[in-house]
Design brief:
The structure holds 2 protein chains of 2 kinds. Chain A is α+β, with helices and mostly antiparallel strands. Chain A contains 12 helices and 25 strands. By secondary structure, chain B is mostly helical. The chains are: A alpha+beta, B mainly alpha.
């Protein structure tokens, strides 16, 4: 018996090794690649939501001149535009079928009416809805607009305005273009927010400047400090953004790496923001945990400190994915700011990064550009990932029953997934199955939804049992009254004259007996 | 006297003393005076109230609606949880008795314990119904629960204060001073206990290391 057990164990070991060998090609086979935080903030490992479909380096793309520290990327339809910063050129790639990307052309010079016909460290690229190509040509101090055939149209240069410090040069780093052709750009050394240009090239001010926060203790301290001490202190300066993304509704997702460990621990850090036209942050943060990446940011695995979001992309279902350059992870959040999953890491395997710089999405697929590795990693959702998207989209479209079924399928794949329970509960709530919805919300401590369901359940219960409730209430009122009345009458009878003689006689007998 | 009482009489006395707790919580000064001076309270009843308090605290964890209490079960140690009531209670009784004996307090140690336990009566009295009540409210109505829950604690605290003044025959001002002094006394006792345990453990570690050294060299 013992022997046989050993044999079985050996077989299991062998098959496990074989499985590892078979799946070793993709990094996703490794345990702990994808995870999520539960209500308590514990790490719950989950099935992979994305798998690596391919990693495209210069070799795979068949480029004569190898990529050199590419920094920006933009996806329009099936086309992928990559800023090959080190080689001063823009690459246009195309994705023909699901798992291959091939180069279409190289844009390394601008035709037409401009003095500077080449790029100098282009750091970001965008395609407007009008079909024009915008390039943040950093060391030429301009954002250049051209048509698809690389014919010069116009350029956006250093704002001629008192609010812009004229002593510093205009170094556009990242940009986004809205439907009206307005350009929003992040410039190095500018901390007043995003620089906004009208479509005709005029400077239209800054938007989304972060409010300067300071500790009042620091403020008082500074008052008494000497000049040298003051210089050594940290300055109260607004944070600079690191990257922006214009979503399908015209809102700007912005991310910043300027977060402190204390802020993340206190839950006040806002590395990811969604800016409206006025520049206010309208990101919904209804999740149990802040939209700030990893919760456990202490020293570990050679890394220490909060997640540093270097780029962000938002899908049409309001799911947004932030790219953490610290630990090389991708964090996906839904429209309520709840974390869907996190995956990735730093390393050399497929699905891991060396220094990720940009993230874009193509439908539900994700593309990540690595500056150091000079590669593009293509991720496609797995069955699990697709089910989550289905459930979210069905709910948004009002198909609550179908959404509930999709969440049920998600739960079948991952029973430790809080979102699935709450998703089923929300679908049940919409279908007016309050009692069942309450059970799901209770399991995952969703007090607001639970209260919504319970309120309705309580109302229904009272309406269904209105007759017994009224009867009981009436009885509770009438019985004491009736009892009081009976006692009163009884007392009157007892005290009535005609019974007095008998009472006396009885009491007399009692006295004799005692 | 107790020897002459029968079982039935003993039980009746116990029930009466337990019922007396209800009188104490509504008439604290009168009640706590009678508790010791008229011998209307018993240690058995005090123990019962203490056990009910502990039970209320434990059952609260398990049965209160999740809107109010969410328990991370892997971190709950039931013995530590019970000790979190018993240990401060023990410290309080010893420290209070120790201090008040020095300052003309008339209460004995058993009486301090009994009066304190009687003072805790509102806690189980309010918390048990609250466990049930918590299942009939939504987040918007959570205030009712919090207010009632706070009431049970404040009421108990005031009762204990009143109890101390009555059993030691103190004026209210002196009681408050004695209570604050007791609080400091408890801190001092905790400090001494910690010191004691850490020195003992270091002493033991010293001899263990000597033993190990000898074993290595043999």
């Amino acid at each position: 018996m013992k022997r046989r057990k050993k044999w079985v164990f050996g077989l299991a070991l062998a098959s496990a090794a074989m499985a590892c060998g078979a799946m070793g090609i993709t990094a996703s086979a490794e345990k702990g690649y994808t995870y999520c935080y539960d209500y308590w903030g514990d790490v719950q490992y989950s099935p992979d939501a994305y798998e690596t479909t391919g990693v495209f380096t210069s070799q795979e793309l068949g480029l004569d001149v190898k990529l050199s520290s590419p920094q920006g990327m933009f996806v329009a339809g099936n086309s992928i535009y990559v800023c090959d910063t080190g080689n001063n050129r823009i690459l246009e790639l195309t994705r023909d079928d699901t798992d291959s990307i091939r180069p279409v052309r190289v844009i390394d010079s601008i035709k037409g009416d401009t003095d500077v016909t080449s790029f100098n460290s282009p750091t970001d690229v965008a395609v407007g809805e009008d079909g024009f190509l915008y390039v943040a040509d950093m060391n030429n101090n301009r954002v250049v607009k051209m048509d698809m055939d690389a014919n010069y149209v116009m350029e956006f240069t250093k704002p001629d305005d008192v609010t812009f410090d004229q002593s510093i040069s205009f170094l556009p780093a990242k940009l986004a273009v809205d439907t009206a052709g307005r350009v929003y750009c992040i410039a190095t050394n500018v901390n007043k927010g995003l620089i906004k240009f009208e479509s005709d090239g005029t400077f239209a001010g800054y938007i989304g400047a972060t409010p300067v926060s300071y500790d009042w203790v620091d403020y008082i301290w500074k008052r008494f400090a000497t000049q040298e001490q003051r210089e050594n202190m940290e300055n109260f300066v607004p944070t600079e953004y690191d990257n922006i993304y214009m979503d399908y509704e015209g809102f700007i997702y912005a991310c910043t790496t300027n977060v402190s460990e204390e802020e993340v621990d206190a839950g006040t850090a806002t590395p990811i923001r969604r800016l409206n036209m006025l520049g206010s942050d309208i990101l919904v943060r209804n999740g149990e945990w802040p939209v700030a990446g990893d919760l456990y940011i202490g020293s570990g695995g050679g890394y220490s400190g909060p997640s540093l979001f270097t780029d962000i992309t938002a899908m049409d279902n309001d799911v947004y994915i932030g790219l953490d350059k610290m630990r090389g992870r991708l964090f996906a959040y839904d429209d309520q700011g709840r974390m869907l999953y996190c995956f990735g890491g730093n390393g050399s395997m497929n699905g891991y990064f060396k220094q990720p710089a940009a993230i874009e999405h193509m439908g539900h697929d994700l593309l990540v550009l690595d500056t150091l590795d000079c590669s593009i990693t293509l991720f496609t959702p797995t069955e699990y990932g697709n089910l989550i998207f289905d459930a979210i989209e069905q709910f948004q479209d009002g198909f609550y029953e179908e959404s509930g079924q999709s969440w049920q399928s998600v739960m079948d794949l991952n029973g430790n997934y809080d979102m699935a329970y709450i998703g089923i509960g929300r679908a049940l709530l919409r279908q007016k199955q309050y009692r069942e919805a309450m059970d799901y919300f209770r399991l995952k401590y969703d007090e607001d939804n639970y209260s919504k369901a319970y309120k309705q359940y309580r109302k229904e219960w009272v309406e269904d049992h209105i007759v017994p409730i009224i009867v009981i209430v009436l009885l509770a009122l009438i019985v004491p009254l009736a009892v009081g009345r009976v006692r009163e009458v009884k007392g009157q009878i007892d005290r009535a004259d005609i019974f007095q003689s008998r009472n006396i006689r009885n009491s007399g007998r009692d006295r004799r007996q005692s | 006297m107790t020897a002459s009482l029968t079982r039935k009489e003993k039980f009746d006395r116990y029930l009466k003393s337990l019922k007396f707790a209800l009188y104490c919580i509504t008439h604290p000064f009168d009640g706590f005076w009678d508790l010791t001076h008229e011998k209307r309270g018993t240690i058995a009843a005090a123990n019962t109230i203490l056990i009910l308090t502990l039970l209320a605290r434990i059952l609260k964890l398990q049965y209160t609606s999740f809107l109010f209490i969410r328990v991370y079960w892997p971190e709950i140690n039931i013995f530590l949880y019970v000790a979190s009531v018993l240990f401060p209670l023990g410290l309080w009784c010893v420290c209070n008795w120790g201090l008040t004996t020095l300052f003309d307090g008339k209460g004995r140690l058993s009486q301090v314990y009994m009066a304190t336990c009687y003072g805790m009566t509102p806690y189980p009295l309010i918390q048990f119904p609250l466990i049930i009540f918590s299942h009939f409210v939504t987040v918007d109505e959570a205030e009712f629960y919090t207010v009632l829950s706070a009431l049970s604690l404040v009421w108990a605290a005031l009762l204990i204060l009143a109890a101390m003044s009555q059993i030691h025959e103190y004026k209210m001002s002196k009681t408050i001073v004695a209570t604050i002094a007791t609080g400091f006394g408890m801190l001092v006792m905790i400090f001494i206990l910690l010191l004691f345990f850490s020195m003992i453990s270091q002493g033991i570690a010293y001899f263990i290391s000597i033993g190990k050294e000898i074993l290595f060299r043999m």
